[in-house]
Design brief:
The structure is a single chain. The termini are far apart. The protein is built from 2 helices and no strands. The longest helix has about 35 residues. By secondary structure, it is mainly alpha-helical.
């Protein structure tokens, strides 16, 4: 009985799939950390929330 030819793991199909998973996991981790840092920075510099517009009647009085 002939033994199947030994192939290095990184050249097999399973190896490619596992390497792709690793790359996507690393990219996802980087994006999650960057997203968290941006949210933290936004909340740190603007803790009251997004800019709120004044009502229209207040705006008209200021223009006069």
């Amino acid at each position: 009985m002939a033994k199947p030819k030994h192939r290095p793991f990184c050249l097999s199909v399973k190896g490619h799939v596992k390497m792709l998973r690793l790359v996507f996991a690393l990219i996802t981790a980087v994006f999650c950390i960057a997203d968290g840092a941006l949210i933290y920075r936004k909340l740190l510099f603007n803790p009251s929330g997004p800019y709120q517009k004044k009502p229209a009647h207040d705006k008209e009085e200021e223009d006069l």
